[in-house]
Write a structure and sequence with these properties.
By secondary structure, the protein is an alpha+beta fold. It has 19 helices and 28 strands. The longest helix is centred in the last third of the chain and has 26 residues.
Length: 617
């Protein structure tokens, strides 16, 4: 008779009594974190179960592992403790066991609706390693960048290749991922591109959670490695392909990977996955003795990736793959990791690498699905080559049993734009500004640290994923597009200098007292407009950037004309701030547009009121 729980579990649920994955949660935002297991639509609070004395086996009866803010202490206890806990929980939750089923008070205290809890990363991750274990993924990437004759390097078939990742940026499912900034490959003899990544990608992965570690200098036998693996989570190891491509020689990935890695909240144990174990692919050549397993095991886990484009209601399936496509097994990965004497510790995370299958619909990342941006991916009428701001990626995985699923829930994350950044240093006098289609020019007066009104501060304008980015991707930031933006950025810098100049008190006197000075400044502003007019509108985003800078210059012309009309007589050589404010308020803001003028200033010049602008020191 199939095992059932007294808690009603929908047949499509990932969390029946056959699963019981472990996680860490908060029942309330201010509550301390505590371990739990998933059962149907509920979380069973293990701290409450332990406090009630239900973990009465020989290993767990005196342990406080379920009164911890993470699972590390439980992981360290090893497989005998894990099996003891699983047996206790399956008995406690079974439909035939009255201990919890008939105890209303304890049920109320220990069973919390999953929709009301906050899930956390379930373990303290000391170290994180990402492998490269899918032959299909390795072959596709190699074909793209080295050609089909040298697609997979010779060492790949002899050892599980990996690199050391960044544990601090591993986040729980549902956490937003900020588009990373970094350098990209230069075009021709120009400087490297710097700005938001234009080739942001997901990677369909899973990851093993390490249980007991090993002593430094003592490798783990491949045939005993399973005892060091507690279970698996879904993982999205986000990748900035353009940043990665420029930086990875000779030491491997760095900023292109370390900005964020998302994991699912529930760790599915190897015991729960055992009914779905299957043979691993045949390895040719035969691995070296330390990697040769008596039984080479994979797991039949169906994996799926959906993308919900920004602004769309529905998501689209882009990938259907399976864990059993991995060439190198989990146990081989762990054994290889320790063969040099490296010591693993409880809570360490070992990523599998992108899990791609042999067919195009099973490719595990956009790099493969779009063949490095050479073709579009259709998402219900919306196209993508790489991820845009606002896109959400949802990974799911489960194993299908007889009338039940053993699943992992979801691993999701949404891309958000990087914050608007301004930086300036005394040595470089450089400002970096990310110009997006929906943003006005940078607010000069309050956010850019100006060191000297005599020294122009150049602005570099970067346009992220947009129509311009599509063109840049297809030609990998063509020389023409780069030069157009350099021209716009140079004009923007000169407009900055004019804005600071106009704010100076002596400028008002000079323009008011000398028609020639006013004409000279107007002529200079007109030259800036002519420079912009020389920029061809070859792309909508180029036209938008050109339009915004142009409107800013027109605004400066308006201000210049306004200053020329203000009566400064009676200042007696002094500069009374209060009197100046009164004159400006009456002679400029009201006469030249009132609220409409204020809106223009706020939208195109970055400040609310012309009066405030002119009165700034």
């Amino acid at each position: 008779m199939a095992l059932t729980s007294f808690i009603e579990v929908d047949p499509s649920s990932h969390f029946p009594i056959q699963n019981l994955p472990f996680g860490v949660f908060k029942p309330e935002p201010a509550s301390p974190a505590r371990p739990g297991v998933a059962i149907g639509d509920y979380v069973l609070d293990l701290s409450a179960v332990a406090a009630a004395g239900f973990f009465d086996g020989p290993i767990l009866c005196n342990s406080d592992c379920f009164h911890q803010p993470n699972l590390n202490k439980f992981l360290e206890l090893g497989r005998p403790a894990w099996k003891e806990a699983r047996a206790t929980l399956q008995k406690l939750l079974s439909s035939t066991e009255p201990t919890l089923r008939d105890n209303e008070s304890l049920k109320q205290k220990s069973l919390i609706p999953m929709s009301k809890v906050e899930m956390l990363v379930p373990m303290a991750i000391g170290d994180y390693t990402d492998f490269f274990s899918s032959m299909h993924h390795a072959k596709n990437c190699g074909t793209m960048f080295r050609g089909p004759q040298n697609a997979i390097p010779p060492n790949w078939f002899h050892l599980p290749i990996a690199y050391h990742g960044r544990a601090s940026s591993i986040v729980i499912s549902g956490t937003d991922i900020t588009r990373p900034r970094g350098q990209g490959a230069p075009s021709g003899n120009s400087a490297p591109y710097f700005g938001p990544s234009l080739k942001l990608d997901f990677e369909l992965e899973m990851a093993a959670v390490v249980g007991p570690g090993n002593e430094l200098g003592k490798p783990v036998d491949v045939n005993k490695a399973a005892d060091h693996i507690f279970g698996l989570v879904l993982m999205n190891d986000w990748s900035a392909r353009d940043i990665q491509a420029w930086e990875y020689v000779p030491l491997g990935p760095f900023l292109g990977k370390s900005f964020g890695t998302t994991v699912s909240p529930w760790i599915v144990t190897l015991e729960a996955l055992e009914p779905f174990s299957c043979g691993a692919p045949k390895q040719d050549p035969h691995p070296l003795p330390y990697l040769a397993e008596r039984v080479s095991k994979n797991y039949d886990i169906t994996l799926e990736v959906q993308i919900k484009p920004a602004g769309e209601k529905d998501s689209s399936v882009v990938t259907k793959s399976n864990f059993n496509h991995l060439y190198w097994t989990l146990t081989q990965q762990l054994a290889h990791h320790t063969i040099n004497g490296c010591n693993l510790r409880p809570g360490d995370l070992l990523g599998t690498g992108t899990i791609s299958g042999p067919e195009p619909e099973s490719y595990g990342c956009l790099l493969e699905l779009t063949w490095n941006g050479q073709k579009q991916l259709s998402l219900n009428g919306v196209t993508r080559k790489f991820l845009e701001d606002g896109d959400e990626v949802i990974i799911t995985g489960f194993s299908k049993g007889n009338g039940y699923n053993v699943g992992f829930g979801t691993c999701s994350g949404k891309i958000v734009p990087p914050p608007l950044s301004f930086s300036s240093s005394s040595t470089t006098n450089t400002v970096t500004y990310t110009l997006r289609n929906d943003q006005p020019a940078p607010p000069t007066s309050t956010q850019i640290p100006i060191q000297s009104s005599e020294t122009p501060i150049p602005i570099t304008v970067h346009v992220p994923q947009s129509a311009a980015a599509v063109k840049i991707q297809s030609a990998y930031r063509s020389h023409l597009i780069r030069n157009l933006y350099k021209t716009i950025a140079a004009v923007h810098s000169e407009a900055d200098e004019f804005q600071r100049l106009i704010q100076r008190q002596e400028t008002g006197y000079a323009v008011r007292s000398s028609e020639r000075e006013k004409l000279r400044m107007n002529e200079a502003l007109m030259k800036l407009l002519l420079k912009l007019d020389s920029v061809p509108g070859v792309d909508p985003a180029v036209r938008e950037a050109r339009r915004k800078v142009s409107r800013r210059i027109v605004g400066l012309q308006e201000i210049l004309d306004s200053i020329a009309q203000v009566d400064l007589d009676g200042f007696g050589g002094g500069f009374g701030r209060d009197y100046w404010n009164d004159v400006v308020a009456e002679g400029v803001c009201r006469e030249r547009g009132g609220e409409e003028m204020e809106r223009f200033c706020a939208e195109h010049l970055g400040f609310r009121c012309l009066q405030r602008f002119l009165s700034q020191p």
